[in-house]
Design brief:
The chain is 22% helix and 44% strand. With 241 residues, the protein is of the alpha+beta class. Strands 1, 2, 3, 4, 5, 8, 9 and 10 form an 8-stranded mixed β-sheet that branches. It has a two-stranded antiparallel sheet with strand order 6-7.
Length: 241
């Protein structure tokens, strides 16, 4: 018998399938994060962003997008944008970009397994005839086959990789219109990614997401951060303020 789905049931099933498909298509990212802070500097709560990218100024669309994602990341740590540069506690310097492609060679090891067993052996099986007499019959029995580890095979992989980076640095606002000297550094977060993809715009909001937990902190050593574009923190940054 073939049953038809009702409208409501159809939409529920379609929703479940859509979620499953989206979950299965999530993109994964791997980042390296370095963070330092200056415990002697005044960690303010208000800021203004200053773009430090050599290519494209504040009017550049990508710069504006990157700044908005970073503002959302900063809000996740309780920081807010001041009404003016003069009113800000800190100046947040934003740098991002992608290095020239380079060739990367790596060696991977693949385990090798061999089939063991599977041979034939013969056993004697007692069999009674119709008169109750026992005689023995030879029966062939196949041994089970198992996989046994025998070693490793090494292969060299050649890749073209691109390093993407984002640096967010907070400096004290010098509050001095008569000098161009930068204020003391308060904290800095440096996020990098290296893989075969060259779409910098795709990575910028995820790099801002990877930075959130390290804003104003000292990581001591370089940290590995793994994210998916379906993670809550990435959704939060992409959504914006």
């Amino acid at each position: 018998m073939i049953s038809l789905l009702t409208g409501n049931h159809f939409h529920r099933v379609l929703g479940v399938l859509s979620i499953a498909l989206l979950s299965g298509c999530a993109t994964s990212y791997k980042f390296k994060v370095d963070a330092i802070n200056n415990p002697e500097a005044d960690h303010g709560v208000s800021y203004r962003i200053a773009n430090r990218n050599p290519e494209g100024g504040e009017a550049d669309l990508r710069s504006q997008e990157a700044a908005e994602w970073v503002k959302t990341a900063l809000s996740g740590k309780g920081l807010y944008e001041a009404e003016s540069m003069e009113a800000a506690d800190m100046i947040i310097e934003l740098e991002y970009g992608m290095e020239e492609p380079r060739t990367k060679m790596s060696t991977i090891s693949t385990p090798i397994y061999a089939a063991v067993g599977g041979g034939i052996r013969y056993i004697q099986v007692p069999v009674k005839d119709k008169n109750g007499n026992v005689r023995y019959s030879t029966v062939a029995v196949r041994e089970p086959t198992t996989r046994q580890y025998v070693g490793e095979k090494e292969s060299v992989i050649v890749q073209t990789v691109y390093e993407k980076y984002m640096r967010i640095t907070a400096r004290q606002n010098p509050q001095d219109d008569e000098t161009d000297a930068a204020g003391a550094q308060v904290w800095s977060v440096y996020v990098t990614n290296e893989d075969e993809k060259d779409d910098l715009r795709q990575y910028l909001p995820v790099m801002a997401s990877a930075a959130i937990d390290f804003i104003g902190e000292n990581s001591e050593t370089q940290q590995d951060v793994k994210l998916k574009d379906t993670d809550e923190v990435v959704t939060f940054v992409k959504k914006g303020l």
